[in-house]
Amino acid sequence: MQKQERGSQNVAVAIGGGLAGIVAVVGGAAVGWGAYSALSLDHQLPLEPAIAAEQRRFRSATAGEINYYVAREAAGRPLVLVHSVNAAASAYEMRPLFDAFRGHRPVYALDLPGFGFSERTDRDYSPALYTAALVQRGLDASVVSRRAPCLDTSS
Hints:
Helix content is 39%, strand content 17%.
């Protein structure tokens, strides 16, 4: 019986020692990455445009400065594309649709507040704020007057 207890204790010590080693390696890697990031990476690089198209802005009284991309090479009913809301969202995720429709109708792709080139201020980012960015008359008059369909990628 005593032999079995010692064996269990040895296993527990080995597991505990293994976890401590893993924690030390992960912690060291995190500190190393933080130092590398702070000392070696340029955090002030300019953001590249998400879509190869005319880039415009409008000021929304509620949602602040809103960035959008527009292609008006074709006539017809405009289409408004809206990206999803996640940690790395921007109009970039709408690029395949934008490029597919741009020769067939006017296409607009918005950067919602807090994303891409749109204003990022300390505020409550809520569905109401995103709705305000869409419904205020900052986009071209043709979009507002023709009740453009809106396509989004959120689920």
